[in-house]
Structures are given as structure tokens and as C-alpha cells.
Design goal:
This protein is an alpha+beta fold and 104 residues long. A 6-stranded mixed beta sheet has the order 1-6-5-2-3-4. Pfam families: DUF960.
Length: 104
């Protein structure tokens, strides 16, 4: 799950609401801060939080106590979605808005 050598995408909904640098940063968090550190399922949740005007990305996973918060060097914008998800179907990896996903 979540290997940097798989195809990666973001949905139109995410691209419309988040700058590319932030989408890239979420992939970097997965690769550098989560992979090999915490066991990852195929659906990851990231909350986008306002920390004194800067963006903090908080990772949490269903049925897990593990939480990781990463401060990013980007200004927080109220137009950002509150939450984005990263989904790995085994072939492709996609960052999407919660309302764009479907539960299996």
C-alpha cells in the first residue's frame, strides 16, 4: 500500500480547492513520515487545520490510535477543505475529498 512508484492522482475537487504544493506535501508526508512508521490501510484521512494562520496536516486512521500532525510552510486558507482522503486501490493512489469517495 502507498508506494511512491505507483501512479498518483488528485481528483478535480481536490485540485480546485488545494494548491499543487499542498497536494505534493501530502504525498511527501505519506512517503517520509508515515510509510514504514505506522501500518497504513488503503484509506488515509488528513485533516487540514489552521495553526496560527499556517497549515497543519493531521493524519489519523480509523481503528488506530496513531495520530501525526505535520506543520507545513503554507498559509492556511479558509477555502481549504477540512479533510482530504488518500485512497490506494492497489494500482492507483488518489487524493480525494470525503464526499467524492465511496465506502466498500
Amino acid at each position: 500500500m502507498f508506494s511512491a512508484n505507483h501512479s498518483r492522482f488528485a481528483t478535480y475537487g481536490v485540485i480546485a480547492k488545494l494548491p499543487g504544493e499542498i497536494i505534493d506535501s501530502i504525498w511527501m508526508i505519506i512517503d517520509q513520515d508515515l510509510t514504514g512508521v505506522v501500518p497504513l490501510g488503503n484509506l488515509l484521512r488528513f485533516d487540514l487545520l489552521n495553526t496560527k494562520g499556517k497549515l497543519t496536516v493531521a493524519f489519523s486512521e480509523k481503528n488506530s490510535d496513531t495520530q501525526v500532525a505535520i506543520d507545513l510552510p503554507f498559509d492556511y486558507d479558509a477555502s481549504f477543505p477540512e479533510t482530504v482522503m488518500a485512497y490506494d486501490d492497489g494500482e492507483n493512489q488518489t487524493i480525494l475529498l470525503p464526499e467524492e469517495g465511496h465506502q466498500h
